[in-house]
Amino acid sequence: MLRFLGNILKCQSLNGLSIFMALGISLAEPAIAQVTTNNALPIAEGQNLIRVQARYLRASEGDTSLEELAFPIILGRGITNKLALFAIVPVLNRELEVDGRRSDNFGLGDIEVVARYTIFQQNQKGKTLRLAPLFALELPTGENEATHGSERLPQPLQLGSGSVDPSLGLVLTRQTLRDSFSASFSYQFNTEANDFEFGDEATLDLAYKYRVFPQSLKEGFLFLGLESNLSWQGQNRASGSIADNSGGTRLFLSPSAQYIARRFVVEGAVQVPVFQDLKGNALETEIQLTLGGQINF
Amino acid sequence: MSLRLLRLLPSLLLASVGLLSTISGAQAEVSQVMVAVEGMTCPFCSFGVAKRLKKVTGVEDIHVDTDLGLATVTAAAGESIDLPQVPEAVKSAGFTPGVVRIIAIGTLQMEEGQIYLRLRNQEQILRLSDSSSIASERLLSLMQENADVEVTGTWNAAGTDKLSELKLEAVKIL
Fold first, then answer.
1. Domain locations in chain A?
2. Pick from B109, B124, B104, B112: which is nearest to B22 by CA?
3. What own/partner pairs with CB < 8 Å and gap ≥ 24 does A120-126 have?
4. Would you say domain B30-100 falls under CATH 3.30.70.100?
5. Which residue in A141, A231, A241, B64 has its CB near the most CB atoms, within 10 A?
6. ipTM strictly over 0.90?
7. Are A290 and A269 in contact (CB under 8 A)?
8. Most B-contacting residue of A82, A125, A210, A215 (CB-CB within 10 A), to test interface
9. Do B52 and A44 touch (CB under 8 A)?
10. Spatial separation of the C-alpha atoms in residues A24 and A1, rounded to whole Å
């Protein structure tokens, strides 16, 4: 869910090189989501928002390294007081270096549309508890026929998966004027395209943030937070065979900061890997940085 | 004189003051509404509430206080806020409307021992309840004068007999 890039990927050959890579970018929904975690807070009927993030990721293994800069653009609208729709439009730039040889790929990734519906809410003065399921579809809008020379790039290096991938999720948020806690679980059913199928993905994100400023409430709040992102991905299948060096489990911790005003949000997070159990020689993520902003209208 | 005693004198009042026959001369409006917004926990939330309240008929000025969990809307000059739309706006923003306090201008009436406030240019009548804090003689006097009054109170959309009810807090003559 909400991953516009496959998680742990094993490339096949690229000009005779054997390349392994591991990537994972989880994308929090808008509506003042915590930086890397979804939340269930409402978007008013007819309210719109645009959220833009810049995400930098670096992963490596031996002589192979990967850098990715992603700019997910998120458009959101409250359809009713319970239903909100989002479109996530990722623009990606990937640079892969293997034994000193570099290749890159830039362009539009797979667009994802997300529906969130609040099924439970308990509101009191200055506090709210909400539960909302999510349904998402990742559409094959990204380039998936890119070549390097005369050879088609292996599927994991393509910007798009070429497949329509549905996701289901559930998000719980409890927020007060002082702090906020969110838990989000999602599962993405990846389907086959171009004779390749990414392994399914599951994520469990937890986030807590605390208002440190102002002590008396004014127009804007500054929150500091800590988020954890646990992800699992099944093994990929290429031409019907399981890719041995794919799939695995990873855990990240992410200190984060958010300034939330009435009409805008500014945010940042550093995602640090604390545990990576990857199959085979997949690239391990070293660090991921996120800076972003949001405008409400 | 208590309100209970007032209920014994409706006929006398109606005859002497003729309130119901002079409804057309009443001047009334809902000039301000303060609604508690339950579940509002951040500035982003308050933006959504304000956006919905802007669509309420008659509203000119909006102030949303995140700390107090309170939204206040004020009518434009000569306009009247459409009262039922206010809690609906809070709901459509995704929150739960709580206590609704209003300031309304109108004339007091009495029928079958019950005091009402009729709103200008509207069919809506507010039943005044729990007015023990207001001196009954004062209410009687205002009715007899058929004077325009400014009433402050807590509004209950689902009052008894499905009639809007206003828990009276203060009355002053205009």
1. 8-296
2. B109
3. A121/A42, A121/B39, A121/B94, A121/B96, A123/B38, A123/B39, A123/B95, A123/B96, A124/B38, A124/B39, A125/B36, A125/B38, A125/B69, A125/B98, A126/A176, A126/A177, A126/B40, A126/B41, A126/B69
4. yes
5. B64
6. no
7. yes
8. A125
9. yes
10. 11
Nearest CA in chain A to B37: A125
Q: Which of A30-34, A143-147, A246-250 is the least confident region?
A: A30-34
Whole-number Å distance between alpha carbons of A111 and A285:
23
Query: Cβ atoms within 10 A of the Cβ of A219, count?
Result: 12
Interface test with A, best of B42, B49, B67, B96 (most A CBs within 10 A): B42
Write the residue in A123, A128, A217 that is nearest to B66 by C-beta: A217
Of A34, A47, A50, A131, which to mutate for an interface test with B (greatest number of B Cβ within 10 Å)? Answer: A47
* Architecture of the domain defined by A8-296: Beta Barrel (2.40)
Has residue A116 got a pLDDT over 70?
yes
* pLDDT tens profile B87-118: 999 999 999 999 999 999 888 888 887 888 87
Ranges A2-11, A185-194, A212-221, B156-165, most confident = A185-194
Residue owning tokens 């933006």: B47
Q: Which residues of A touch B96 (CB under 8 A)?
A: 121, 123
- Give me the CATH code for the B3-26+103-173 domain, please: 2.40.50
Nearest to A283 by CA among A127, A111, A123, A156: A156
What are the structure tokens assigned to A46, written together?
């007819």
Query: Would you say B53 and B81 are in contact if contact means Cβ atoms under 8 Å apart?
Result: no
| Residue-wise pLDDT tens digits, B44-96 | 889 999 999 999 999 999 999 998 999 999 998 888 899 889 999 999 999 99
Percent of chain B at pLDDT > 70 equals: 74
Candidates A78, A123, A220; nearest CB to B43: A220
Answer yes or no: do B47 and A219 touch at CB < 8 A: no
Chain A residue nearest residue B44, CA to CA: A262
Q: Do B49 and A123 touch (CB under 8 A)?
A: no
